[in-house]
Amino acid sequence: MSHDDFPTDDPAVVTCGLPYANGDLHIGHLRTYVGGDVYSRALERLGQETALVSGSDMHGTPVAVNAEREGVTPEEFALDWHEQYAVTFPKFNVEFDNYGHTHDETNTELTQEFVRSWIDEGLVYEKEIPVAWDTAEEIPLPDRYVEGTCPYCGEHARGDECDEGCGRHLEPGEIESPVSTITGNPAEYRDRTHKFLNVSEFSDYLSGFLDRLEGTANARNQPREWIEDGLRDWCITRDMDWGVDYPDEERSDLVLYVWVDAPVEYVASTKQYSDRVGADVFDWEAAWKATETPDDPTEPATGGGELVHVIGRDIIQHHTIFWPAMLRGAGYAEPRAVMASGFVTLGGKGFSTSRDRAVWADEYLDEGFHPDPLRYYLATNGGFQQDVDFSWEKFRDRVNSELVGTVGNFLYRSLLFAHRNYDEAPIADATSHEVTERIDEAITAFDAAVNDYSVRALGDVTTTLARFGNEYIQHNEPWNLVDEDPEEAAQVIHDCVAIAKAIAVLFEPIAPEKSERLWAQLGETGSVHEATVEAAREGPTGELSEPTELFEQIEDDRVEALNEKLESRVAEAEADGEGDEDESGANDESDDDATDTDMADIEPLSDDRISFDQFQDLDIRVGRIEEATGIDGADDLLKLRVDLGAETRTIVAGLKQLHDADDLPGTTVVVLANMEKAELFGVESNGMVLAAGEEADLLTTHEDAEPGTTVK
Hints:
The chain has 712 residues and is α/β, with parallel strands linked by helices. It folds into four domains: 12-102 and 261-346, 3-Layer(aba) Sandwich (Rossmann fold), CATH 3.40.50; 113-256, Methionyl-trna Synthetase, domain 2; 387-537, Isoleucyl-tRNA Synthetase, Domain 1 (Orthogonal Bundle); 612-698, CATH 2.40.50.140. It is built from 20 helices and 26 strands. It has a six-stranded parallel β-sheet, sandwiched between helices. β4 and β5 form a beta hairpin. α4 (105-120) packs across α7 (258-277) and α12 (392-421) crosses α14.
């Protein structure tokens, strides 16, 4: 692995968190998979050798519980969902190079090899621990067979996770007041002997790993708290029949914890891809295996490729603590980057599968919508680590304004004019200097987006270029130049077709099917999926065909009908007595998702009001962060130097765990300037930076307001 800018000489593997084989996919689940597919395609446009892999998570107690309810075996239950996912993803142009599952032979063998490596390295030990027990059935209760109270925050918790409170990973025996989900009876704890991975041994290594890790800031910063609090060793076995057997004949009563075999599927899926296409096309060992592990625990192993994990933020801990330790202990390379997405809400509320309050993946397609507009919406509506709210109204507005009004409008008017007035391209001898510069700028922005791990910026490249194209054609009015100056008219139209070709290449990661159709309209040879960014610089070469409009307008009455259908479904589900609690659909390896909540943690609006005069007393200003540094002894605080126009102030803000300090300079923020001064860890704070929610989403301005501008 290198940390050089992409493209590099090392093979890249992009993985998407494994969907849990436990229910239908809705569009909230698709965000991670669309994001992974977009990023993988963008790497390929840069010329990076890349494989996109994932698979279905088949094991764990939720599968066993639901299989039992349906009267089928866990394997039958999980395989049915796996096969549905394998069909659904391509419908949204998510094209995995390999999509496997955790119950196949490749993953089973590799998982057991990992564990044997840890045993050989002395990293696994045995310990007696309390395990929840159903006294009525006289059986142990692994993970999601037990629920109760989180010992850390007091909220409801299930199995291995505090899913309604602090989100913390829970070890067996930690849940207080345990109850069996099988019988509903109180459970009791009994001592059982289990196997542990000595994760605490990797504390120094993991600190260094997080310093090197690229990707989204939440993936780098959140895990530091867990290391600083002291790493606990990890129970890697469970008392159940469904899963990968622990590789020790003397402990044939144990299977491996689902979070052991699930991430190994990334490796197994890559291996299956190599086995299918040949190591000369893609070598899985070159991508995953380290060539040398240094004695210094803080240093990375040498060798391996560019490993990028695209996940939901609810499984950051597994991918930045457990998984790197697993890889290190088995002699594998470490991930280069982790991109952790925010959640998707629906009209400001969470998806609720039990209330049928969701836009299901198949439903979206059955309504006749093309997958590419949804890919665009999910990819560009906010930064990747921010939460995204979907509503049919917002979807309509983005499609009509940006895809139809900006991108589609430019492409159709340019290519239609070119087709009607010229036989073939190139129409002029070469693309003008002005347009060449703009295309070069777009390619530079595309390159920067890939290396900044910004899926949104990849989409913005196209809309920005199309917006310039609309201005260019409107300013030059080639329809008037055809008679007045036919040579200049030919140049303008040639330039517009050149912009259209660049859009086809640069928009391919976001809208692959529409880009391929545009490529055909341009008369270009081969497939746009094989074109690199250099093709965007080459200018038009093909014979133009009569264009058709790429994107369709969404009418208001269509949105009204879709909302009525959704509301009717929810009402029917509630009338049937469903919806007492939210259930998970398929998701990243954890079987629950913050998108599957009813957003109960949103505070109600206050009834206490302030007068306009009181509001006028608040001095709220636009500021720009100039510097951001940590404060000695403060885990959560950053010292910011913020330009407020008239002066630059020092402000202390609790952003350290949620934002990368190196990314903050240049960020426009909103500041309460007449906040009382306060001293924190020896630093005087003179103001307050405003942010929203637990993720500290920094408030900013839509346009380029100057520092010092008053917020009214």
